[in-house]
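User: Predict the structure for this protein chain, please.
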Amino acid sequence: LKGDVAHVVARCGTVAYRGQVLPMEEDTVQSVSAVVSEMLQDGMKVIAVAQKKMGTADHITSADEQNLTLVGYLAFFDAPKRTAKASIAALKRLKVTPKVLTGDQADVAVSICRRVGIPCGRVLTGAQLDEMADSALSTAVEEVHVFAELTPGQKVRLVAALEQNGHTVGFLGDGINDIPALCEANVGISVDTAVDAAKDAADVVLMKSRLSDVPAAVRLSRATLKNIHENLFWAFFYNVVG
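Assistant: Here is the predicted structure, written as C-alpha cells:
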C-alpha cells in the first residue's frame, strides 16, 4: 500500500527497520514525522509505503488495511525550472499577481515558492479553507499567495473568490484535478504535455512548457487590446464627425 504519509502511518502497527520489525510506538511515530518533515521542507513530495502478508486470501477489503508494516518512503523532487523566478518577476512588473493553488503538502509548496520568489509568509490549507466563511475568504485571497493541500473543488472556490473581488483570473494547470478551476477561470491555460482533458478544458494551450511565455502573452494581448480600442475610437469619431 502506498499513499499520503499520515494516512498510511495511521494504518501501520509495526515498522521495518534494519532487518527487524518493531512496534509502531509513540517515539517511532515521532521519528517518522521528523524524517518526513525534513524531506518536505527540502521541497520533496513524499509517499509512504507499507505492506502486509495476506497468506492465501484472494479477496481484500478496506478492513484489511490495518496493522500494516511501514517499510519506507518514496521521495520525489521536482525542481523549478531555471526561468521560473525571472518569469514570476516579469509577471509582477506587469501588475499580475502570481498565486499558487496546489494539492501538494504545505511544506513542499513553501519550499518551491521561496525558490521562485512568491511570498509565502502565510499559507492556507484546504482544511483551513473549509472552516472559512465566504466573507473571510474574500479578504484572505487578497493577502495570501500560497494555498496548499487543496481539492479540485477548493481550487474552484478560490478562483471564484478572486473573480468576485473584481480580478481577471488566469489559471494554469495540467492535471485532472485542475479541470474544474480551468473552467471557472476567466482564462484557462494549459500546456501541450498536459492530460488531454485539461487541454480540452483550457482556453489557451502553451505549445512549450515555459512560464516565460505567459508574461509575453500578457504583453502581446494588452498591446492588441489597446490597438482595438484605438481603432474603435477613431472609427466612431469619423462616423460621428463625418
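The radius of gyration is 23 Å.
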